[in-house]
Every structure is written in structure tokens, then in C-alpha cells.
Design goal:
328 residues; alpha+beta; Arc Repressor Mutant, subunit A; 3 domains; four-stranded mixed sheet; 13 strands; globular
Length: 328
């Protein structure tokens, strides 16, 4: 049995791990960020120590997203995987919406070095819940990387990447969410981070309301609150986030709502959209093993909107019936 996995799924659905979407692991800075970040939220503790080249950025995370997407595509087809992957640099650049010039390959090399050099110490565990024991461990975002083949001019062609056990366990347990392909077109680091948080927190509820202070903390922003608030208002005005709308509310609060169910008055489904219970989502996971339940839910809500937002006697039964048809 080979001990590496070849990335060969063209146009694999973009997926990201839940822990990276929930917590501020990646830097939002466009300059080398050499600050040690200590983060604590509701019992989760994370310390992120950069190398001399700086902390891995939210754009560097595209490499991990590409790897996760490839692994999940293989797992869903029953293929054998490994935490050591061999990928084609050109495919990675295209899949993540980047240019393929000579400078792009140099920037890709720098990203690999930041990912390998950034160290994480955390009590946050990944993998099946039944197997989790709270321990504090330290690791790199990737364990190692190596250029396997390059052109005569020195441009990388094939790259071998070994993911951390922590991240690989997250993939094997399917602790991932699907991203919009438009995520890669977001050029502001904070826009990307807000999309990740929206995707993570709006999955099982009609909207997510959060204070500006908590949002600043969860985003990992190093800006003063007044500056962070101003950046939020600029993003709200630009309205470029895929799938989600941000609204500023009284009390220094931000409400994030899925875009396809926002009425002209900003309300969820007007007279009240379908709300699904946590038990229904658990049953949907049983009916469609391996599927992204939140993506399924979003698709179902899109169908509900497209069909005129009909009143449902039981939203839970309607959703589960729809899931059975999709997975059958």
C-alpha cells in the first residue's frame, strides 16, 4: 500500500476544517506577522507561535483547503487516503483562483514555509467525539513539504505535503464544511474571515447575532475596536460576501443572515422561515452519511425560497423527506 495520496480530483468541492473556521488560527496581516497569539474562548485555548518568516496567513490556508477538498472527495468515493499528499502546484493555483506567473510560484513556496513554521499549542482536539480526551499538544500546521519535481528554470511542478495529525484527524472525522468557490475571490483578509465565521455559525440557524467585540476576538483582528468597527461598516457597505449579508444593529451588534432568505425588510423568510431542530440535523447526518449537512440545508432552503416560501406543517419532516430523495 502506498504511503502517499495523489491529488487528482479536478474541480473538487472546496472544504475547510471546522476548527480553523471557528478559531483565529491564521493571520489577517498582509505583512510578516511575528506576534505570538494567545486565544481563549469558552474553554478552548490556542497559542500560535510564528517562525521568523511570520505566522501563516489566511491566504496561506488556501493550500490546506485544497488538500482537505481533495481528501474529502476521495473519502466520499471510498478511496484510500494518507496525510502525505502529492499535488501539482499549477492545479493548486488554478483551484484557489490565483495567477500562474513566476511570482505566484515564489509566493506559493513562501506560503508552504509559513505553514510549516507556524506552531500551534492547543487543548482543542479533533477526530471522532467518542475518542477525544482533553490534552494539550503542539504541532505545525503542516508537518513537512518538499518539491518533488521542478522545471529546468526552477519552477515547482509537483509538491509533497504532510499534514499534521491534528488536521488529518479532522478530515477523517468529516469535521469540515463546504465553502463557496467565490471565497477565493475575496481579497480582503477580514472579508475571508467573516465569511468563514458566517459559514460556521449560520449553518443550523436562520441568523447569527454577535457583538462587535466578540466578532473582533473570533476574527483574530489586531485592530482597536473603533478601527475594527469601521472596517466592518466598509465591508457591510461593499456587500461582497458570498451567501451572507451583514447588518449592523443597535447595541454594537452584527447580525449575519444567509443571503438567499433575506427579504426586502431583512427578515428571515418574511413571515418566518423554517427552523430545524438539532435532532433533525442529526437524523439528516444518519440518512446522508458523508454529506455536508449544512450545505444540504442551505440547498433545501434555496428550494423553499424558489418555490414561493410555502407554509410547512412540519419543516423537520419536509427537510428529512427532501434529504432522503437527494441521498437515495
Amino acid at each position: 500500500m502506498r504511503d502517499f495520496f495523489v491529488c487528482d480530483f479536478f474541480a473538487a468541492v472546496p472544504k475547510h476544517d471546522l476548527a480553523s473556521m471557528e478559531h483565529p488560527i491564521f493571520s489577517l496581516s498582509t505583512r510578516p506577522d511575528r506576534r505570538v497569539l494567545s486565544y481563549e474562548h469558552r474553554g478552548t485555548e490556542i497559542t500560535i507561535t510564528p517562525s521568523v518568516k511570520g505566522r501563516a496567513t489566511i491566504f496561506d490556508a488556501d493550500i490546506l483547503i485544497f488538500c482537505i477538498s481533495q481528501l474529502m472527495a476521495a473519502i466520499n468515493l471510498g478511496r484510500t487516503t494518507s496525510r502525505t499528499l502529492t499535488l501539482t502546484a499549477h492545479d493548486l493555483l488554478l483551484a484557489t483562483g490565483r495567477e500562474t506567473s513566476g511570482d505566484a510560484y515564489k509566493r506559493l513556496r513562501d506560503a508552504f514555509e509559513r505553514l510549516a513554521g507556524t506552531r500551534i499549542t492547543t487543548n482543542l482536539t479533533t477526530g471522532p467525539k467518542a475518542d477525544r480526551v482533553e490534552v494539550t499538544s503542539g504541532f505545525g500546521l503542516i508537518e513537512s513539504w518538499e518539491i518533488v519535481r521542478k522545471t529546468r528554470g526552477g519552477r515547482m511542478v509537483s509538491v509533497s505535503v504532510t499534514l499534521s495529525e491534528w488536521l488529518y484527524r479532522a478530515v477523517l472525522s468529516k469535521s469540515v464544511l463546504t465553502l463557496s468557490r467565490d471565497y477565493f475571490s475575496l481579497r480582503k483578509p477580514l472579508e475571508r474571515r467573516l465569511y468563514e465565521l458566517a459559514r460556521k455559525h449560520c449553518g443550523g440557524q436562520p441568523s447569527w447575532q454577535v457583538s462587535v467585540a466578540v466578532l473582533a476576538k473570533k476574527s483574530g483582528s489586531n485592530s482597536p475596536i473603533r478601527v475594527f468597527r469601521a472596517m466592518l461598516r466598509e465591508i457591510i457597505k461593499g456587500d461582497r460576501l458570498p451567501d451572507y449579508v451583514l447588518l449592523e444593529e443597535p447595541g454594537d451588534l452584527i447580525r449575519i443572515t444567509p443571503r438567499d432568505v433575506v427579504d426586502d425588510d431583512g427578515a428571515w423568510g418574511g413571515a418566518g422561515g423554517p427552523i430545524l431542530s438539532p435532532e433533525t440535523l442529526d437524523e439528516a447526518r444518519r440518512l446522508a452519511p458523508g454529506w455536508d449537512i449544512y450545505a444540504l440545508e442551505a440547498s433545501w432552503r434555496g428550494v423553499w425560497v424558489a418555490t414561493g416560501r410555502p407554509r410547512l406543517r412540519s419543516a423537520d419532516k419536509a427537510f428529512l423527506g427532501w434529504v432522503k430523495k437527494q441521498s437515495g
